[in-house]
Amino acid sequence: MQDLITHADGRTIDLAGDISAELYEELEGTYSPRANPVLFCGNCHGGIYIRHGWVMKTVLYGAHHETGNCPAKLAIRKASMSDEHKRMQDYHVVALRAEGHDAATEVRTTTRTVVDVVADGRIGFEVQRSHLKAGAAVDRTGRSMAAGLECVAWCAETPLTAWRGKVPSYQWLDNGQFQFGLPRPQSVRCTGVASFRAEREGRPARWVPVLDPQTKLADEVITSLADGSVKAVIYARNVHLIKVDGLALYEEMTGTRLAPFTGRPPSRTLTPTRPAECLRPPAPRRAAESASSVRSCEADSMCNEDNVWPYEGGKIWLCAGHARQRYAPRAARITMPKPAPADDPTLF
User: Fold this and answer.
1) CA atoms of 204 and 221, how far apart (whole Å)
2) Which of 91, 115, 202, 225 is the 20 to 30 A CA-CA neighbour of 82?
């Protein structure tokens, strides 16, 4: 009996010992349907899929699509993370705590995901050093956000990642530093954050917003995501991390807002030119300095939603949920016909 898993791409995965954290995460996100499996049992060569254990949630199992008598127990256990992965994770924690944010590591969510770092219980950070497939990254991001996280940003080490533009992500440029120890704070650069700048284009020339990619210190990117000065939005059908002042400039110049990333792939998200809510009135043009101040929903003091829109001529600012409650059209009243008058016996 061989406790092996074979992949459709030709790889053979030996389950005799613990596998790397990167391979574990890849298998966890691999979709292997019954009709067209991509994972196979190394003993009986039947198609399998990956599921979590019922008792030990951290152990994955290769379950056979077809019930048979195969004795192989395809248990997948994750080894401890590599030193480089741990150092990149610790760098996030140090950067967050230096700015007063709470940082927790290896946070388990209700949707069976384990997030590397979570800041203030709201923003998740995933450190990824392997070639994770796009579907696995999108699936894990969606499940983590469905569990309550506002955003999950991926820290990539490789320059070419299949999931770039599909999930919020940024790339480290000084990866060699992590091979020898934890780098000093404010010493690692990264790309992936952008803003908007105004340029004159076309004939006749007019001012238009143009995406402006920037290279920043990783510490600044991490803390900006935690404090909300960098947002994950959909632009040109891709997920981007955009600075808030750049979003204000885009809104001022175009009169529209970019749709926030909600955990779904961009192909299922509304394009920026279409309104996200049918009941929303068009946002008025505002100056960049006034738009940069973040407003909150005024319908309820307990509502912390900052993605709000003006109503009643700008007198009140509401989030989408409270706007639907307040301005939803009432059900049409059905006017019943009046009953015909009874016959008057005096007429006969």
Assistant:
1) 38
2) 225
